[in-house]
């Protein structure tokens, strides 16, 4: 189950459950679409993987699987990208299809 983290790890932009700008990697490292596109170029600075749009947890109670019963986390992960450290990971992954990294 996803934590649905509340902010962009790099710029701290709010990314609530209903956000259409939240992107995650397979480990749920969470960034806003702008950072993924303009700064990270679809390379996760933690694992080197690609990103996909994060789904939203349903708010309606048509089933028990909604945000009321399965709340999103309030724990903020704020770890601005160290561009010096990111460079090597970026160079070895940016040219590869995320599915083939
Ligand atoms: Zn951001
Ligand atoms: Zn990652």
List the helices and strands and how they pair.
Elements: E1 22-24, E2 30-32, H1 33-40, E3 52-53, H2 83-93
Antiparallel strand pairs: 1-2, 1-3
The chain binds zinc ion (2 copies).
One zinc ion binds next to strand 2 and helix 1.
Labels describing this entry:
single chain, 101 residues, alpha+beta, three-stranded antiparallel β-sheet, 2 helices, 3 strands, elongated, binds zinc ion
Rg, Å, rounded: 14 Å
Q: Write out the distinct hetero groups bound to the structure.
A: zinc ion
Q: Please, what is the average pLDDT?
A: 97
Helix-strand string:
EEHEH
Number of helical elements: 2
- Provide the helix percentage: 10-25%
Trace the largest sheet across and list its strands: 2-1-3
Biggest β-sheet strands, sense, barrel = 3 strands, antiparallel
Strand content: 5-15%
Q: Could you list the spans in which at least 5 consecutive residues all have pLDDT below 50?
A: none
| Count of distinct strands | 3
Whole-number tally of structural domains: 1
Tell me, briefly, the overall form. elongated
Spatial gap, N to C terminus: 24 Å
Structural class: alpha+beta
